[in-house]
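> @MW can you paste both from yesterday?
MW: sure, first one:
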Amino acid sequence: MRAQEITFLKLVQGDKQFQVPLYQRTYSWGREQLKRLWEDVGELVDQHLSGEPTAPHFLGSVVLAPGQIQAGGVQRWLVVDGQQRLTTLMLAFAALRDHLRSTGDERGVDRVHRQVLVNEFHEGLDHYRLLPTQADREAYTACVRSRAEAGGSDNVGAAYRFFRGAFAEGHEAGDERWTATVETVLKDLLSIVEITAEPGDNVYRIFESINNTGVGLSQSDLLRNYVFMLLPKRGERVYQELWLPMQQSLGPKNLELLVWLDLIVRGNSKAKQSEIYREQQKRLQSLAGDEGALQYEVEQLAQRGRRFLRIVEPARESSPKLRAVLERLAAWGGQTHYPLALHLLDLVDAGRTTPDDAAEALRYVESYLVRRLICQTPTTGLNRIFMEAPTNLETDRPAAEAVRRFLSGRRRRWPSDEELRAAIRGKPFYWSGRPPQRSYILRRLEESYRPSEPVDFVKAALSVEHVLPQRPAAAWLQLLDEETEENQTPQELHDLLVHTLGNLTLTGDNSKLSNHPFERKQQILESSALRMNLEIAEAKRWGKAEILDRANRLTDRAVELWPGPIGGIKPVGEESPGWTELRAALVVMPSGTWTTYGDVAELIGSLPVAVGAYLGSNPSLIGAYRVLTVEGKISPSFRWPEGGDRQPPQELLASEGIRFDAWGRAHRSQRLSAAELATLLGKDVAQPVTQDPLPEGEDSAAAERFRTQLRKNWPDAHDAVLAALDFWRRQGGYVNYGRFEETSCFPMLDAGTSHRPHLMWPVGIYPVSGTVEVVFQYLKDRSPFDDTEQRRELLNRLNKIEGIDLPEAKLELRPSFPVRVFAEHGEEICGVLDWFVHTAALDLAQRD
């Protein structure tokens, strides 16, 4: 085998084709891997634009084996390892080409297409520089060919859409050189080690050996080995007295984190956790031969390790004020604040600031994080802000003042009081951040009442409750009908209010509260120990006016708890984060889907009219034509930009797979709701508790409620549904039930071992609403259905049954079909369930 370091452009240029063999898994990079790659690209772009010397970024290796070559054909290479990187970069270039087309740069389009994506003078499959496995091939070639269906719901389509959005946002924010610089980085500054096998080598054995390696050394292991190699005389004592106690107290993950934080606090704000060893080695190599200096370095690291322990275990902090704020940040979760917190503890221990001053500084950090979450400010660049803080704080003023001034910087987006008030009134807080962070904010608001007998939140099993229910009964909608605006339905008003902070509280009685009328909820809330619940119970009704009044009161408390930036006024001319989120939502929509102005408004906390006005003035936005009226029609006011040569919107949507009826209405099953858009954006969209299976086994009382509700609401389907559930039990599954008023049902399967459960369920059945949800959203994280092809097969098998029409664009969501389909096609549904169990069992056998 031969190895050489090479740029991506040099790797792919020439009449060649990279074929991904069938034994390789399908393309599997998700949003997190794509974001990490794009952040690395962004750093190289920034360095290049600022004139800094730019060293290539090592992307990894690609192992190739020579394939067959025919006279006049292309040189074929089998991709033994590295197909995920190759596919990702090819999709990035496809997105770059299409971005250049949207800006009118036809020469750039031609350059990228010919240099990277295709073999210009070859036809058929030889035309493509990369040929993925057959499962990914159609989705990939759609992107290379710029076909209407490019950017579908699978991982290939999602990656293409990710890069289209990244280019659009970067072009908007960057200078005129930005796009060209990104092209340069992708072509010439991403370094790959090309490893080439010789003819006759056993390619599959190479693949096996690469993918069956043992556990490698961590970055901190490598650093430890290097340091003690340089300590031949003092090594044993330094290890026993300093390194080993530090390693034992922190554990392997936190030790590695400490070694990275040590670099950051020392001023290396661009250090990557994957390159800790190389950066520390570079810093320490000048001390080789001076064991005293090296011992001092280990002593400094050990001291910093003890400070770091006070961050991750706040009970170790002796100052009450500092301990309290460290506990709050630990409860908030995440590691974003670690660099600044460690720097502040360095200052405290060095006597350069006081514990109280450091506590006030960290209070500003907490406020910064909380306000950004409530206002749904994009998290892009957040880690970088805190990594740059230690070396950018002003040193001629108290630490708290310096931190507040630093975080108040214009490009650091600390929301003002005005923005906070608007977000609490209008944004869907229930979709912000992670569930523990949402609960934390509500907990802090409750604590702000300063009750004489505070609730022990550690022991109390509290969860977030919607006062106005997520699934309102008719009485709730009748109440809202009194407050609707012109051309607004009660359901639309409900959707704008239901997830806002003014409608949310904490309770241990979710199952009792359910979607009962407000009068019943009042009776339960009156007995609550929480002051905020007693306040809600005092209201005479619960509609728009009451929710907004409570939002105003909560804002007053939030402003007191979490102070704002210096100045406290939103910068003039700064775009609302809502429009950034709107553009991101349009980008993540798979081809073959549509949404409404109301859905987008609910997502970003705006109004349908405002969304329509924004899209009307920006019709060239990616995916703007996919936003339709609530009836599923093209808005009469939608116009393409002048001078373009675009298909009429309905024709374009139809070419992507949207089905229209004779009245020009798009098919309802292909519509993405606000919750589905939020899910595609990566938000932690908490589903109603009723929709998630309980962990315990079958509950006879719940089973009886389910049967009764099904018999009452859908009598024709009752016997067939129960027969299907009996069939499921005979296949080795069992049935779980929800806890709320509508007692949902979930056929469960444990496709694991006694030591390692592997729970999954194909559908959820709702006996009142009469829907059967196919839970692709859960299955995509569970083998074997984490493979898009297996989910697609499940969808295709269901769609062969009359009455079921699940859109392929929702392979990562929860599309549904009517429960009445069971009445006529119960046996066919059982056939699909049988296939599901067989597929899971086969996967278990292969995993064992």
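MW: second:
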Amino acid sequence: MTPADWLIWTVRASVRPRHCRAGWLVLLLAVFPVLATAAPYQWRNVAIGGGGFVTGLVFHPAEPDLLYARTDVGGAYRWDQASGRWSALTDWLGRDDANLTGIESLAVDPRDPQRVYLAAGTYTHPRVGNGAILRSSDRGATFARTDLPFKLGGNELSRGNGERLAVDPHQGGILLLGSRSNGLWRSDDHGAHWQEVTTFPAIARSAQASAPAWNGTQQIGIVFVQFDARSGRAGSPTPVIYAGVSTTTGPAILRSTDGGRAWQPLPGQPTGLRPTRMAQGSDGRLYIAYADLPGPDRMGNGALWRFDIKQARWQDISPVPQSSDTQGDGFGWGAVAVEAGNPDVVMASTFNRFGPHDDIFRSTDGGRSWTPVIAGARFDHGNAPWTAHASPHWMADVQIDPFDPRRVLFVTGYGLWASRDVRAADHGQPVQWWFQNDGLEETVPLDLVSPGQGAHLLSALGDIDGFRHDDLTVSPLQYAGPRLTNSESIDAAAQSPSHVVRSGTVRHRLHDEVRAAWSNDGGRTWQAFVSEPPDGEGAGRIRLGSDGGRVLWHTLRGSHWYTDDHGRHWQAVRGLPNTAVVVADTRSPAHWYGYDAASGALLRSDDGGASFVADRVRLAPAPVLTAELRADPQQGGLVYVGAGPQGLLRWRAGDLQRVAGVDAVHSLGVGKGAPGRDVASVFVAGTVEGVHGLFRSDDGGARWLRIDDAAHQFGQIQRVTGDPRLHGRVYFATGGRGIVYGDPQ
């Protein structure tokens, strides 16, 4: 028993008021904390493999096999050569710091393999906080944090450019960070404190260093900083430094020869395009990838240039012309790399050349001639079969192993590929690639369901539809049948779990594809609904009655509809506001429940969801609340309401009990009850007795056990889902770390 571990004991009020107005029957339960020993959980990822944009890779130049990866929304990773897996470095970030799970840039200390730095911050909009520098002296096992006075944009335009963060190779206490809107910043104490380099040219802060985005204009600023190690000596600051500003109208490549105090444009540089990445060979020559836009959303022009420092001469060495784009909309150059031991070996990637396809080109003569390495290559999809349906794109970074130049890795919008025989291309042979993503999980799950039989988990995912997981440790193929771009909602019938439905979106919906599908074999095969309801835009929330016979679909920007024949006919649900969420009773097909946070109304249906009436109990209105309802799988008629800052409530018809001690609920799940219990286990991601975390109760909310810990926070936990067959098992969605599941140890 330790003082840090708490169980919360709630004692139900035994006396009800004799008279109570309808809507006011909310019983508050008294709370008495007691000390207890918390049972630890083992946390693992459900195996999918990749699934999101890996935005950068960094090899350590002085230690073999020390490799880091950064992602746009899923944190940072270190490669573990012994296990052949990636290790997540940022799972300790909690909900309040979820914005730091987007990594803008990553840097290592070239002379100290223990030190690694992350420039963390996902967005720059007003609703999020500032970015931070996360600094580690033990390869990412632990981090110290320095908050920055500005925001970072790890999931914004130019997120594949880089690296913005750099460590002086001769004096490791010196770091430079190129920002989006606030110029160049410097630290002289290993990232603990920062100050602006006020002498850096103002163009980095100006509108000239911005780009058009889907939501207006985004400031891009400085996209890379690079020290010229050849110019310095150990123990002294490196004098020559380069920086790239994302601009097409002014000097984009700047150089300092005095350690960063003064900066001048590199003479004779090309104009009209903006730099994305730069690599320097051991002979000093610079290779710079350019594009008209920073990516990844769009690029329509670009070039690859080489700068010979000794001769002060620029040369366009683009491997293929713009005319090679068969779609005719142009393309940019996303990445460039130079072999550490041979400055004539250069590799560069096209970006957004979808016709015929993006490619990586390789030169062994400093850029005079080039060979493609993707065209004709062989890709091993064995450890992630779903990748056979994806094409390499968004190749924003290519890295050559400094200790084994046969080994090359490149990133994509859905993970990263690796090869150990890239030199095969030099002899006209196909290059072998394998999907090096074991342990790196970056999907964005949008909904989860654990059926009562068959596969333990069915998922709805952003970008890559979803999966049936018969084995949580093996990456399967995506759903067979009609495909969705985003599967956004999924449900299985409680008493007939082979019946499953899902809804979502279809990108480029050219043939009026129906954006929902059903399965009667537990998600093995799927068929599209016959039609969609008369209003809405697909997606939304879709739910099944307990016997699998009736489907309720609340379409995006539409109303609630029901069908008994897989969409051949649709009927409007009566009495259910468009702002309400619903859930079916787990025992009776006739009973459904709804909660309208906008009005606070709790609603019931006794005719299979065809119509709803307000219960006599209700909550206070909460118009901006995203609420969750979960029906107890072991007791018919019992529903748990996750009501955000109003906490957790147990609801039966006419009777609403607020579970005291639960201060806020961000996500709510139910699963198999403890042995001997007649109620389900309840899982809450939220705040209990002032403590933020993930909690489990085995007695309907009377006592709570915290099941996460300081090392396992996973950013923003969503879509909490219990397993109806395994007591204690819980699944949840993250904002970019894939699907996580936990079991009591």
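> thanks! The chain has no helices and 61 strands.
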